[in-house]
Structures are given as C-alpha cells and as structure tokens.
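Repro:
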Amino acid sequence: MADEVDGFPLHKAVFDNDLQSLSRLLRKHDVAAKDKHGNTALHLAVMLGRKECVQLLLKHDAPVKVKNGLGWTVLAEAVSYGNRPTISSLVRKFRQQSREQMEERRPNLVEALNRINDFYMELKWDFQSWVPLVSRILPSDICKIYKSGANIRLDTTLVDFSDMRWERGDISFIFNGDAKPNESLTVLDNITKVFQKVRYEESEMEIEDEVDLLMSTDILAAQISTKSISFARAQSGWIFREDRKELVAGQYESELYTVHGLMLESRKRREHLSSDDLQKNKAILESFTKGGNFQNFDQNGAPVRRNSLIPPPEKKVTWEEYIKSDVNSYPRLGRDLVYKESSKSFKATIAMSSDFPLSVDMLLNVLEVIAPFKHFSKLRDFITFKLPSGFPVKVEIPILPTVTAKITFQHFEFRDDIPKHLFATPKNYVEDPTSYASKPEFLLPHDRTYLSARSSKFVKRLRKSQTIGADRLTVIVEVPMLFTLAQKKMKINEDLKSSLSLAQNPTLITDNAYKKLLENCFSVLTGKEEVHNINTLYNSKPDIIKEFYAALLSVAAEFGRNNLTKEDITQILSSTCNFPTQRVNVFAEQFEKNRRGLEIALLNIGSCLPHVTDVKWKIDYIVKSSMVDDSEGPLFRISLITEAYDVETEQKKLKNVNFTCTSQELQDFVYKLKDAVRHCTVSHRIL
C-alpha cells in the first residue's frame, strides 16, 4: 500500500495542487506515466480543475490524446469540467502533437512506399441494404489507384458516403511523398477544373469554433472491440458440409471466412450540457438542414463564444482514498457523470487468396495515404485485424447499421510505365481555396484525427468535428438529409422523383388507391402483412401502380431513417415532389401514426424480419419393420437459426425454426427457395 501511495509523485503533487513540487518533479519523472487507474497527471489536473497544473504539464508536452483505464481522453474530461481556457489549451496542444507524430511517421511511410514496385489497381465498391428497395438506390464505385515511387493517385466518383448520404463527383486525390507536408496532399475536381491543397494550419478563430462545438455537444467515444473476434471457414451444402471457395474477379482462387465477434461499442456523456443546450442542438440541426449556420453573432458581427461552466462542487476525496481504491472504481473527481453506453454486434465475410501479388502490409501503407475518404478508412480499420493467411481480395463489412459495403479487388498489375503527369496538377486547373463557407474535415491518415481542408469544393459535408474520447472522430453535428442536401433545396434521385410525381394525377392514382397504398407501404416497412390486396387497386395500367408503390416505399423508408419532422416531410413532398396538399397531409398523418414502428424496424440490420444466420441438421433413422415397410429413408430434422430485433430488450435475439422432412421434401424446399430468389431478382430489375 505504501508503494501505491508514494509510487506516483507527479499525480500526488497534482492532487495536492502543489505547483512547486510538480515543477521540481517534472525534471526527473515521466510526464506521460499512468497510475493504477490509467490516469496521467494531466488527467487528474483536468478532472480536479487544477488550471495552473494543467498549463505546467502542457509546457512539458504532456500527451493529450492518451486514454485512461475507463477509455476517456484528457480532452473529454476537460469538456466535462467545462473550463474554456483549459479546453482551448488542450485543443492547441492536441493539434501540435498530431502534427509532430505525423512528421515522425512520414519518413517511414515514404520509405515503405518506395519499397513497393509501381502498380495500378482497381477496387469495386458495392453498397447493399436490407431495407426494402433501398439497395436499388445505393451507390457503387470503381476506384482506380496508381502508385509510382512515393506518389499515390486515387480516382473516384464516390466522394463521400456517410450515414446513408453520398456525394458523386469526379475527384482525384494525389499524395506526393517527396513534397513538403503542406504541399503533399492535393485534391482535383476534374469537372470544374480546380484544385485545392490540403493545409495543416488552423486559425485562432477555427480553434475557438471547435471549442464552442466541443462545449455544446455530447462527449462520444466509439471503438470496434475485437477481444472475441474469430474467423471461421464459411461452409456450403445442406447435407455434406464443405468449406466454401470462390474465384474472385475471375482470377483469384479464394477461401471464404465468416468473421464473428465484431462489436461496435459506443459511449455518450452529456453532464456538461443543460436542457437549453439540448434544445439548441436540435435547433442547430434544423438550421443546418435549411442551409443555415450554427454560430451566433453579436451586433458587431463577432461570434458569440461559449463561457466556462460553473465548476462542479469539490469532491472531498483524499489522495489515499483515490489511489487505494479498486482499479477503475475510484471516487468521481470531477462533474458527476450523465452517461449512456451501447454495443452492437456485427458480422463480416472475407475472401482470402494467396494468388494476389500484393501483401497485406503493402496494402495498409497505401490505405494509410488514401484514408481521408471515410469509406476507405473503414476498410483500413478492418484490415488491421489479424486476418487468416493470404490477401483479402473481397471483403463485406457493415459501415452503417443498415448498410453493408462489399469491396472487391478486381484488378491489379505491377507496371513501370505509369505516366508522371498523373501525379501533377494539370496546368489548366486553377486553385480555388475560398469558394465555400462550410469547412469540411479531412481524415489525417497517420493519427486518425481530422485536419482542415479549407473551403473544399469536393467533399461538401455540413458538419464540424473534433476528436475527443476515441482515437477518431467522436463529436459530430450531423445534418439529416434525404439522399443529398444542397443549401435549402432537397435533392431526390431523379427517377424516384419522376415516380413520385404520379401522385399529381388523380386519374392514374385515385384518392382511394393512394390511401390504401400508403397503408400497405407502412405495414410492409414495419414488418406487418399488407392491409389491402394490391391486385384490387390496379386500374388499366398496373405498372403505374407498381412504380408509384415502390417509390412510396423508398421515400417513406428514407424519411423514417432520417427521423424527419412532420414539417420537413410536408415541405419536401410539396416543394420537391409537387404532391397535392391533400395528399401531403394524408402521407404526413400516416407517417406520424407509424413513426415508432419505423424507428424499431430501422434500428439494425435484420431488424425488420428474422433472417437465417446458420443451419443445423440431424438424421432420425427409421427402422424398417413389418409395421413400416414403405419408408422413404431417413427423416431430417432441420433447424434454421434466425435472428431478429426484440422490441422489449432492444437487442437482437436468436430463434430456431424447426421442421422435419424427407430428403425429397428437403429438395423441394430448396427448389422453392431458388424459385423465390429468381422472382425477387426479376422484381428487383423491374423496380
């Protein structure tokens, strides 16, 4: 016990608010040392409100990004305490340390790239969803990657994909490993013929903007837990099971694996927020949705900054009580927690091939460069797991609760004739650093934090972000959009808009048919049986009814996923889709009536209807006798293991569907399933 009390002199000096002793001890003790609870001296200084100690520790380069035993960074604890000068100092130090870490890693990255032979590679991205008809409108993309020396170029048409929102374009991302840091990253817009350098500096106003955002939003921490991750060979066959193999892209012989034990753990804190803050945050989202700005300005046009919070009551905790407490069960030192955590399990599949000419380590070096694109960062995170032997030529991973991404390495070749001009900015392109007021956030590949790309014309995301808690983005003010949102005008897929416009013609879609189609629509989306037989609604043009019904399903699912208000829905249907007022009101009324059901149905993959996750079987042999002489052979006991969303527990639950059949009946069952797949595929193409 004596060792515990005296073993952390820096921490004790902070606890006692002994600035003189702390200054002396910093000359010979490690400023980054952690105590038994995982707290650094800077953690304690922030939680206890020791402002002078904080500044002294920062002068000695105390790490800001490090997490304690409970998974919280120093910056997270500072936001909880609420002292604005302290938060500002930590943000500046965090940026400085991130730049320094990046510069330390840069030579190794450049060296690793130079060791790889020059190549050209194509990756295909397909996004799929279980939500009815949504897969039909999800994007796909073929990314082209060129590598020459320490230079990498990525050509893509999918600029961003985040929370069911994506943006199309024709973008080239160029990394020049031999250039200076502020000149190494360039983004080209090949449509408007402009380019932009990705800068690393932040102005004082940008820093203070980030502090305002941190102090007014939830503290979030999210991570993928791989403690229980395992890779199991995927198998096929109903009777005689065998390991699945697949020829990927027509040339890579691969072994398929199912990934079990992936958990997304997220935690949220809001003890620093008042009820007014929560209301303001809602107003901010609504303002963003309409193209507004979240900042307040005074009469002189200067931004109104958020003040420090009143310090929490000082806790009567002694150093001995703190250090002698059980690990991570110490008395609360700062503001009392208002805390919520959740976890979700995910499944992934992966195809590993020994035929692919690139190694996993080589791929990670390439992905480290192009990780500013968020969907690529998710792929990189997944590949850092300890994979089976080979190269992951095809990966299917969940990137959103309702969306799975399938990434296929469909072409690769080493080349020594890659033109040098691909890695230079074309002479007819002009720099455009100031066109857009909204400043996006580019993911810094080396430390998984965010850097500013000034006024980017290429990745327009109306959000501000700052890293706290986890190693990556943890505080986001997101903008609810339907497909894409530009300024004050909601953009909907043109084909979908055309289908929805059928509502304008009462001779094609009668009021009675419209109401019944809506009732059917929400019944299907909430996992219930259709209320009306759609065959009775057909007029002389059944294809029109089908087309309009499919459009209703798509738009209702999107409204539900984005949790749009009644006013938002009314505005979109009226102004964008030109719905008659009476039909807008009927839609809004039905939506409000089914809002809770939609929320439940859209919570997670597989939450609308149970889906089969595995199959078990056993044989009951029939003994032939005089009483049973017409036996058709053994009976098979089949168990379909399904999972579905449980409304009461708000978790997935497993349920077995059991039946017994002969081998012939089993074959009939399989044929009927194949027939259903065929019909669904045909319907998918029609819609």
